[in-house]
Amino acid sequence: MANPKGTSMTDELSLDPENWDAMRALGHRMVDEMMTSLETVRERPIWQSVSEAAREGLDQPLPRGPEGAAKAYDDFVRHVLPYPMGNIHPRFWGWVIGTGTPLGALAEMLAATMNPNVGGGDHGATWVEAQVLAWCREMLGYPADSSGLLVSGGSMANLVGLAVARNATAGFDVRKEGVAGASGRLMVYGSVEIHSSIQKAVELLGLGSDSLRLIPVNDAFEIDVAALEAAIAADRGAGHRPICIVGSAATVNTGAFDDLDALAEIARREGMWYHVDGAFGALAALDPDLRPRLRGMERADSLAFDLHKWMYIPYEAGCILVRDAEAHRNAFTLTPGYLVRAARGLSAGEVWASEYGIQLSRGFKALKIWMSIKEHGIDRYGALVRQNVEQAQYLEALVRGTPALELLAPVPLNIVCFRYRGDGTHTEPQLDAMTAELLVRLQEEAVAIPSLTSVRGRKAIRVAITNHRTRREDLDLLVREAVRIGGQLEGAGIGSLAEAGGAPATH
Questions:
Q1: What are phi and psi of 111, to 5 degrees?
Q2: Alpha-carbon distance 98 to 306, whole Å?
Q3: Which residues, 6 or more positions from 53, have their beta carbon under 8 angstroms from its beta carbon?
Q4: Helix or strand run (H / E) with residue 302
Q5: Would you say domain 379-499 falls under CATH 3.90.1150.170?
Q6: Residue 31 above 80 pLDDT?
Q7: What are the start and end residues of each CATH 3.40.640.10 domain in the chain?
Q8: What are the φ/ψ torsions at residue 334 (nearest 5 degrees)?
Q9: Which among 15, 235, 477, 485 would be 20 to 30 A from 381, CA to CA?
């Protein structure tokens, strides 16, 4: 039978394989090789720069015709797989990046096979997300009737939380009038140690960075509560409207916890929204011994955190919880005729995630979280959090016991900031230069992947342990190699030349 254009129905195209057995065999090969890759990850370099050959292999004209699935996978194995970021390796401690798990990777395949849009509707994926959100509320002590949303990560979670905060506390209809309707600046407060995503959110919400008041911290890098109260009073006196306090649990630079209970009390007294950025530190609550440090987090009006950090879920997996579900929905809901819900059929469903965030099209992030929690149980995650904290304390002791190294910040959680000080005769610019070069050498020589930061104006090697594969022997190696490489830099005069404006040959 021919269609109206005269083309045979048998000529209609599809993207399914012509040979399912061949595709199945390729899939088995992929699974086998990726499991082997994870199993043997300790035996390979953490990271290496992408080779010229690989760059050329990844810089090709747009394919006009088919190359085939096997060729596509072979090119991945040749040009992509050998050049990982490194965060699946036991000695990756850069930024705050989690490790992933084998089942999490397989769950991603299952989610992609189902390929649902989890914006709403009555289908299995929406119910899995609802279950994951219920578990998140339970494990962090958040109210059972609060709302929540899985998002890409902490940056998006903070944006969603602050959007609700702005709309709920502005005193006028922000969705209708925009921020131009404000009679004075809408002010947000957080410490100088808050994550940069807070400023991005404030800017994207139209408030402007001048509306973000950064408060000094104490010697432990915790927000100065008295300075916060003074700033709020001064802004009220200037005719501004303080709307939100952001508490850190924990700060990204050093792992410090703000006094979350004190911040909750100030927000309550001042009639302000209380948002907690718990990107990784919120999950310290999974360990009973660490949970008391988070007292007051459960009082937050909104709570942002990541599951791809300290729960080791494959990227992306972030979450925002909001105490007032109605305020959350009111900040985002918009239902055109083509998205009207029904009492029955696929368009049914109690909660549509698209009414609680920016995205209408949403992937099935919940499956890897759901399967991972079922695989291990939440208590095992708490034990791993505790293990990482104990490893950080072990590294702290190693640094303190090594005269050539200097600890630059307290270690309240899982982050250790240190530098190479050598014989103690170097100036601050020289120490900064040696620290920056030492960091790069550690990465280029595939010793370990920490990251570089600044602590009170001094460059620091920052080790953030959110890695379930790390062992103490890895930390021993880091310290030994840091001293070895630092001695080489010191002997070569790296710091002195940098201070003088020169650029020594480093290779």
A1: -65, -40
A2: 10
A3: 79
A4: strand 302-306
A5: yes
A6: yes
A7: 107-376
A8: -160, 115
A9: 477
Q: Which pTM value belongs to this model? A: 0.93
Q: What is the DSSP-derived secondary structure letter of residue 343? A: S
DSSP symbol at 3: -
Closest of 503, 11, 212 to residue 2, by C-alpha: 11
Cα separation values, 130 from 117, 341, 364, Å: 14, 18, 12
Query: Comparing C-alpha atoms, which of 256, 224, 235 is closest to residue 188?
Result: 235
Total residues belonging to the chain: 507
pLDDT band at residue 492 under the 50/70/90 scheme: confident
Q: Where in the chain is the domain with CATH 1.20.1340?
A: 19-84
pLDDT of residue 9: 62
Q: Which of 342, 289, 315, 240 is nearest to 88 (CA)?
A: 315
Q: How far apart, in whole angstroms, are the C-alpha atoms of residue 194 and residue 375?
A: 34
Does residue 506 surpass a pLDDT of 60?
no
Tell me where in the chain the CATH 3.90.1150.170 domain(s) lie: 379-499
Proportion of the chain above pLDDT 70, given as a percent = 95
> Around Cβ 37, how many Cβ atoms within 10 Å?
16
- List of long-range contacts for 391-395, beta carbons under 8 Å, 24+ apart: 391/465, 391/470, 391/472, 391/475, 392/255, 392/416, 392/463, 392/465, 394/472, 394/475, 395/463, 395/465, 395/475, 395/478, 395/479
Q: With H, G, I as helix, E, B as strand and everything else as coil, classify residue 257.
A: strand
Q: Is the confidence at residue 280, as pLDDT, over 70?
A: yes
Residue 21 to residues 17, 178, 401, 469: CA-CA distances in angstroms?
9, 57, 60, 36
> Cα–Cα distance between 1 and 88 in angstroms, integer?
54
Task: Give the side-chain half-sphere CA count within 13 A for 315.
Answer: 9
H-type helices in 170-293, by residue range? 174-177, 196-204, 225-237, 260-270
- Per-residue pLDDT at 111 exceeds 80: yes
Which CATH class name applies to 107-376?
alpha beta
Pick the CATH number of 19-84 from 3.90.1150, 1.10.150, 2.60.40, 1.20.1340: 1.20.1340
Residue 500 burial by Cβ neighbours in a 10 Å radius (0-12, 13-18, 19+): exposed
Q: What is the per-residue pLDDT for 498?
A: 52
